[in-house]
Amino acid sequence: MDRQTGGEADWPGREALHDLAACLRFYSRLPVPQLPGEPDPHRAPDFTRLPRMLPLAGVILSAPAALVLAAGWLAGLGPFLSATLAAAAMAVTTGGLHEDGLADLADGLGAGGDRARMLTIMRDSRIGSYGALALFLALALRIGALATLLDRTGLPAATGLVLAASLSRVAALAPMVLLPPARSDGLSAAAGRPGRASLVMAGLVGLALALAALALGLEPGGVAAMIVLGGLAAYGVTALARRRLGGQTGDVIGACQQAAEIAALLGLVAALAP
C-alpha cells in the first residue's frame, strides 16, 4: 500500500526532486512550478537537507550560460564577446543573488568599524564604492577566465563553466557548516545547518560531476585545481567572516560562492597554461 503525503502517493526520489525544485526557486529566477505532492513552494528553504541537491541545481542554473558560451563561440563571436554574453546569461538566470552578497560583504568589511556597524552596512540595500569595485572585479575575472578557456580549449570551456558553477555552490556551504549565524534574526539563522547526510550526498554528486567533466574533455589536473582552489577560496572567505563578523550571514555565503567560482575558473586556466 502506498504511503500518502498531502493527498499524493509517495514515489522513489520524490523528496530529492522536491529539494531540487526548492534549490532552483531559491537560487534563480527560473519559473519552477509546484510539483505533485510538494508542500508550499514558497516556504523558506530547509538547509538541513537542501544542500544534497546543490550540485545538480548548479548544473541546471549554469546550463543557459554554457549554451550561450558555446553558441557564441560557434557563431564566430570570439572569446571575449562569447564570455561576456555567457556572464550576462548567468546573471539573468540567477538574478545576481550571490553577486549581491559579495557586494554587501565588501561594503561592510571595507567600511570597517565594529561588528555591529559592519552588519548594519551589509543590510543596506544601497551599493557603496567597495561593493561596486568587488562586482566589477568579479565580473572581469569571470569573463577573462572564460575567454581564456575558450581560446585554449574551445567548446570544453562550457564544461568548465558548468563544473565551476556546481562546485562553487557546494563550497559555499562552508560558512554554514563552520560558523554560527552572525545575527539571530537573519535568513541564515532560520535556514539551519546542513545535515551530515546532506553534505555527504552533495560531495558525492559533486565528485560524480567532476568525473563527468573529465569524460567531456577537461584535463585531470585542471579539474583537481578547480576543486582545490575553489575550496581554499571558500575557506578563506569563511575565515575572514569569522575574524571580522564572528559568524556567517547570507551575504557571506554569497561571497563564498563567488570567490569559489572565480578561483575554480582561474585554477582551470592555470592548469591549461600553454
Describe the structure in brief.
With 274 residues, this protein is mainly α.
Structure description:
This protein is an all-alpha fold and 274 residues long. The chain has one domain (47-271). Helix content is 71%, strand content 1%. The chain has helices at 14-27, 54-74, 79-94, 97-111, 115-123, 129-153, 156-171, 174-178, 187-191, 196-215, 220-245, 250-271; strands at 4-5, 8-9. A two-stranded antiparallel ribbon has the order 1-2. β1 and β2 (8-9) form a beta hairpin. α11 (220-245) runs antiparallel to α12 (250-271). The longest helix has 26 residues, at 220-245. The relative contact order is 0.14.
Q: Give the overall form.
A: globular
Largest sheet: 2 strands, antiparallel
Tell me the distance between the termini. Answer: 61 Å
> In what order do the strands lie side by side in the largest sheet?
1-2
Strand runs, count: 2
Total helical elements: 12
What is the helix content? Answer: over 70%
SSE topology string? EEHHHHHHHHHHHH
Give the uncertain stretches in residue-range form.
1-8
Q: Look at the structure and give the mean pLDDT.
A: 89
SSE-based structural type = mainly alpha
